[in-house]
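Pair request: fold both.
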Amino acid sequence: MVIKKKGLAILGSTGSIGTQTLDIVRSFPNNFKVIGLAANNNIACLKNQIEEFSPKSISFNPSSPNKHFLKHFSHSNILMEDMVKDPDVDIVIAATNGCSSLKPIIEAINSKKNIGLANKESIVIAGKLISQLAKKNDVNIYPLDSEPNAIWQCIKGEDSGVNKLILTASGGAVRNEKTNNYSNLTPEQVLNHPNWKMGGKITIDSSTMINKALEVAESHWLFNIGWEQIDVVMHPESIIHSMVEFDDGSIKAQLSHPDMRLPIQYALFEQKRQINPKLTRLDLTKINQLNFIKIEQQKYPCFDLALEFLKLNETWPAALCGIDETAVELFLKNKIKFNQIYTLIEKTLSTHKPKDNPNIHQIIDSYNWAKDCLLYTSDAADE
């Protein structure tokens, strides 16, 4: 029996999720075929991926100084919005940063392509629009993030009502730091995540807990559940990725070794489990204990701040994501201190003028406004 290979368009192929997705393709060459690869500026990595996977189309930043690396390939540089519409594409992996995947995701949904979603910003800033389009076009959105993916695994096959979703958070690299030392933390220290290997932006967001606030919003839209039914607890070991409490009080948890390839594989196979020798098995006898801790507001002020504006909907989530991207970038360039990420976000959002029931253009405009709205001042630097 010949298995039809699923065609993949991978947006953000050179990033953490993109490269791990390709690792799953390597493990299952008879199940998947790479149709399109999209990257930003990591042209050297993209070149290697093209040579290995022979995609039908590619997309990259035309302003990249290293674009000459690709001159020997016959591929033309196309827009991601065009790549996802290819008839050979079955699943679009959205794994870029920021809102760059938003338009391609909408094009993919309108072309009736299923979505593997790692780019949580897109559904956070345009949750209502994406949810309505997915329902209209009978398109599935598969969560790739470990926590929403864990929820997806827990609710499969259940006919009982869900009372509560419980997301777990590692606390990032700052979980053992004193708050009065935040101003002394270097980017290198905050990038040293104790459990996960991820990209720079999401690693910083893990330590501010903005990433967890975005996952709350993502879960709100993906699972159509009220904000008040989503809890977050600190779980330093990152063994339990999420839990679901059902109406009868039973709680189901998903446990695994912290490896993003497992949720990616689960999504690519559309909830059909596969044996993969490359994935580390969890040995419960080597786990001394599992801890669950209430989130300290003083330690993670960005978490409550982000949730406050995410729940307002309108264009607030877009503005939040835009300014967070800028704040993280400034911190990584040593232009602001770690504790000033909160200050910059708060000051910027205080000037935002939201749009009610926004269309995609207003959403993107609000994102870009916040991303470019540098209210960072010498006063903020001294706080």
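--- second member of the pair ---
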Amino acid sequence: MTLETKLPKVGTTIFTVMSQLAIEHGAVNLGQGFPDFNVPERLIEALDRAMREGKNQYAPMTGIPALRQAISAKTQRCYGYRPDPDAEITVVSGASEAIFDAVAAVVRPGDEVIVLDPCYDCYEPAIDLAGGRAVHVPLDPRTFAPDWNLIRAAVTPRTRLLMINSPHNPSGAMFTVDDIAELTALLRDTGIYLLSDEVYEHIVFDGRVHESVLRYPELRRRAFVVSSFGKTYHCTGWKVGYCIAPAALSTELRKVHQYNTFCTFAPAQWAFAEMIEAEPGHYEQLGAFYEAKRDRFREQLLTTRLKPLPVPGGYFQLVDYSSVSDLDDAAFCRWLTVEKGVAAIPLSPFYESPPTGQRLARLCFAKNEATLDSAIEGLQKL
């Protein structure tokens, strides 16, 4: 019996491939986006306490009430909107699960979903499994800003969902107030839903403001807004995130969630509930924390032949390597890992059709200074 794959375009993710290559060659891993510094001490203590107090069994499917209430209060504090913790907030096992659940909840066979390239690699497989078709619209290849004329042209009667990501992975680009106005006008009087991936919401630089969809009533009425504790609290391996959506959309998302993971690691939920309320300064100061890392790493990169691009938000630095090599990005990143001892991520896997001649690689600066210094030593030898 021959099994026909449901995901013919999917192989091992580029993040796994490059991380494994880094291990095999002893390279400094600036590829996969995870911090190599400690989780906040209060969070570790709260997790330990929750486990010792016996909070180790199934959590409620939607998340423990204390965490949903803390998320609601935090959303009010950040964006001036207080979602209903019972009807509009769902705790999930990481942002990727929330994205899958949301797509599965609203996309039917034959529906079209607009995604903005370059985009995170979990988007299209979720669309494919739902029987939909991803319609790829390129962002500006230099600034990674959306071209609203192209997006409008991609809308058809079959368009069911538009997926956005700000701050953007891999570029760090952010939606502006003008982008929000264009987005609002585009979706007005349509039946198109919105999925807003905001996992880097607190990692914004240079006095910028994260224009969350949650700030805008007209948009949030049709939106799934996804966030991640892993990015905010340096614990990507805990895989805890959440989705805020209107009650009707949350009801449909929960129908998928309850048969996907059902619930999320209970002790961590208790720990995050405590951390959010006890130390709001952590997420409020996160942008400044990473801005210092960005600035230091950028200054170091200027001593190499790589050209760093602007980084408005997130914890990735794109570099133009065209003065070093004319290899395509996948070949260059492999060469960089094997020969120079620094692992990076190529941009082409984020695209359906990569721009011709683009010579960019993604480096993660969510690392200790010693890690970044070691990487720079290798990059200075280019």
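Observation on the second member. DSSP finds 15 helices and 13 strands in the chain.
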